[in-house]
Amino acid sequence: MKLLKTKIWHWRDIWLLKWCAFLFGIAVGAYFHTWVVQYAWVIIIVALLFALRPAVAYWKD
Asked: Is the backbone of residue 44 left (phi > 0), alpha (psi -120 to 50) or beta?
């Protein structure tokens, strides 16, 4: 079994994975509400930093 292989995703698979991650994030955020509120700014800054590289790579081409 090849663990890391190139796969061309269908748009529905990406859409479903995106919504799965979104809903899982809502569930985790609801469960750990006090911790999430306490570190909200840190989470926002880290999320923006993580989004920076893909955004630059996308608009670079």
From this structure: alpha
Give dist(CA 11, CA 18) in Å, integer: 11
pLDDT of residue 4: 72
DSSP label of 3: S
**H or E segment at 28?**
helix 11-31
What are the average pLDDT values for consecutive 10-residue runs of the chain, which has 61 residues? 73 87 88 87 87 81 62
Terminal-residue alpha carbon distance, the chain: 33
To the nearest 10°, report the CA torsion of 13, 21, 5, 55: 100
Backbone angles phi, psi at 30, to 5 degrees: -70, -35
